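Side project, low priority. Logging it here so it doesn't get lost.
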Amino acid sequence: MKISRLKKSHKILQYFATNFNYREPYQVLIDATFCQAALQNKIIIEEQLKKYFQTQIKLLTTQCIILEAESLGAPLTGATKIVKKFHVHKCGHEGKPVTAAECIKSMTKDSRYIVATQDRTLQDRLRKVPGRCLLYLHKATPVLEEPSNASKKYVSKKSKDLLPAKIGEKIDHMKQTQGLKSSTGKEETSKKKHKGPKNPNPLSCKKSKKQKVQTTQSVHKNDKNTKLNLSAKSKTLMKPKRKRIKIPNHVKEIVKK
């Protein structure tokens, strides 16, 4: 059997287990039409279903199904012999037998059975009821039918009804455990200080060209100012020069005499 088919059957079983309380061992309710199809395709039902489900299963039938197969006579002789091999489950119709379809329909009201049948009319009737799981034979291969539209609608409605209440309860529980909500029901709000953006590290930042030009200009101005200051200081420190008076030569001669 292909792995994809096995995964699909497990997925469908998991769907019915989570939403409609199907449990292991899964109970498979088999009628004579399913046994007749197995006989025609020359397959052994118990072996094929164990390979298909690969989990614990229990094959069942009812007294009503056996009596209906016997009443149909020669065409279903082989199917009657096969169906008699399974465990006969009490259906509540002892003494007053009903048709196999009616028996299966009443059996699936309260209990969780995987119904194995080739009866198309019975399949259509069971698809209209939420939570009914169907199994049939496609040639020689057992096929577990996907959930019907009625089952899907029931599950979606149920989840919508339950989700808001469950989410609210979980949120309240989480608040109480984390101390955000007191036992009285009042929420304790704690104001958090929001830190503003930090300034970048000045060592990691590159200086802009404008800043470089301004700094060079300021350096040049400072150099000029320092030169002017130095020149002024040197002028003040230097002694004033004497003024030499020139004496004419005729005066010098008179002085010598």
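Brief comment: The longest helix spans residues 149-177.
Revisit when time allows.
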